[in-house]
Amino acid sequence: LGEDGRFQALLAFDETRRPVGVMTLNEAVALYAQGRFGIIMELYVVPDARSAGVGDRLVQEALRIGRSRGWSLIEVNIPAGPEWGRTRAFYAREGFTDAGAFLKREI
Questions:
Q1: Confidence (pLDDT) at 3
Q2: 3-class secondary-structure state, position 76
Q3: R_g of the chain computed on alpha carbons
Q4: What is the 3-state secondary structure (H, E, C) of 31-73?
């Protein structure tokens, strides 16, 4: 948890205490969200632990955190392209819906 409570990192471990997943969450504020909301910045599960429910448990914990902090929603950005189809399908199974794409500019 960051000092101001706006950043959190969640870690997942297997039964041997080996780290198998990480998720980072940021809190943001926007009019369209009617206040505070969460952004999943990163979600990574080691390849041999995928399809074992690790990502699902991390998302469920993010939802719990969001509810406790009064967030109206949680967003995640997924790059375009067929190589991200499995990632898009994972989030769809978790109840996320398509809400458009982000653009970026390096500074």
A1: 62
A2: strand
A3: 14
A4: CCCCEEEEEEEEEEECHHHCCCCHHHHHHHHHHHHHHHHCCCC
Q: In angstroms, rounded to a whole number, what is the distance separating the alpha carbons of residues 100 and 52?
A: 29
- The Cα–Cα gap between 57 and 49 comes to 12
The kind and range of the H/E element at 9 are: strand 7-13
Instruction: Quote the pTM value.
Output: 0.88
- C-alpha distance across the termini of the chain, in Å: 27
Q: Is 59 exposed, middle or buried (0-12, 13-18, 19+ CB in 10 A)?
A: buried
68-91 residue pLDDT tens: 999 999 999 988 889 999 999 999
